[in-house]
Amino acid sequence: MLRDRRIVFGVTGGIAAYKAADVVSKLRQAGALVDVILTDHAAEFVRPLTFAALSHRPVYQNLWETTGEAAARHIELAEAAEALVVAPATADTLARLAQGRADDMLGAVALATTAPLLLVPAMEHHMYEHPATQANLRVLVERGAVVVPPEVGQLASGIVGIGRFPETATILAHLRALLGRGGDLAGRRVVVTAGGTQEPIDPVRYIGNRSSGRMGYALAEEARDRGADVLLITGAVGAPPPAGLCVETARTALELRDAVRAAIVGANVLVMAAAVADYRAERPADRKIKKGSAAENADGSLTLRLVRTPDILAETAALPGTERLVRVGFAAETTDVAANAAAKLGGKQLDLIVANDVSKPGSGFGTTTNEVTIFHADGRVEPLALLPKAEVARAVWDRVVSLLAARGSAQADGDA
Ligand code: CTP
Fold this sequence. Notes:
Elements: E1 6-11, H1 17-29, E2 33-38, H2 40-45, H3 48-55, E3 59-60, H4 69-80, E4 83-89, H5 91-99, H6 105-112, E5 117-121, H7 125-129, H8 131-142, E6 146-147, E7 151-154, E8 160-164, H9 168-179, E9 189-194, E10 199-202, E11 205-207, H10 214-225, E12 229-234, E13 246-249, H11 253-263, E14 269-272, E15 279-281, E16 306-308, H12 312-316, E17 326-333, H13 337-347, E18 352-357, E19 369-376, E20 381-388, H14 389-415
Parallel strand pairs: 1-2, 1-4, 2-3, 4-5, 5-6, 9-12, 9-14, 12-13, 14-17, 17-18
Antiparallel strand pairs: 7-8, 10-11, 15-16, 18-19, 19-20
Helix pairs in contact: 1-3, 1-9, 4-6, 5-8, 10-14
The structure holds cytidine-5'-triphosphate (CTP).
């Protein structure tokens, strides 16, 4: 989605300017066409040549340089830009942008472009928290800018506080979301669940499963990049959730059920990629179960009584106000994949079920790829090749987009 996209990338004069080099490099590797503009102060920290070498394009700095090339190009850059990124954005730059100053190349392009603005503030924490900086950020956000919040951590001064330049992946996630605003899921509210649940046995032990959450994360990211308003509800997942979307956590099946029920009110799509425990301990101990304690049987064994958890996805079919919700389930199977998936599709009244044989190499838990078959409510069955999870996600959303369009026209017919 970044391939051939025109990004104007402003780098301003803070120590994090060196980290901007990595962002530019990753953008170019993803196929974006990145035109870098340095402020004079940024060039004190990192030389223009660094950015020219990484972007494979000329770098702009002095609007008034004698050849007139930069002055001539600022309007062209402003018009070609699909997004203007300012990273790092110093306190001074935020003030200048808020005021609409145009006495340097970056300010002139920022005024002349209609492209959305992505700001990545990074500075000393008092400067960031100062009411003047916060007021400038508010003005810019009111005008439509998106701000990637700085992280809390060790700052260049050695002090720990807010103001750190975020990870490259976080900035790219926000940029993808910004570029995807007009995508085929724009205006849609989608809920994606990911990861496994953990059902407590006692305060230190639980019953879990091998879900890594990767498939759910890939689905949430793809929806975000196609313009959806995404709520990702994660169970137990090792990796941090993707940036640029709303995240809630739900540890147990019962917590997940509450979170899903609340989230689907007014939503267009529910994708249940979470691996929900089918059983939970009926009575989790409130203290750690000790060997030799009264909890043990006489022969030293331990009996845990497990009870069924509710089928969250199946229950949503009967909830009022969700008649038009597109509902997608996942089925991880080890035997009779087709028969089991078809039974779940019907039993849970789904629009789609994405089934995979988790015993196959490269498919299922903990892998970065998946080989799935998509079963449709109308009886169509589509086996897909072994694909990276991001591409499986793309295929799933392609089908959901068609279902949403069909549902929209069915509604229009009904209204007519
Ligand atoms: N699911 C759910 N609530 C449950 C169990 C599963 O919402 N208590 C959802 C899963 O998120 C998935 C789909 O239902 O989208 C199928 O899950 P799966 O575990 O494969 O099916 P089950 O119905 O639990 O059947 P079984 O475990 O017996 O195969």
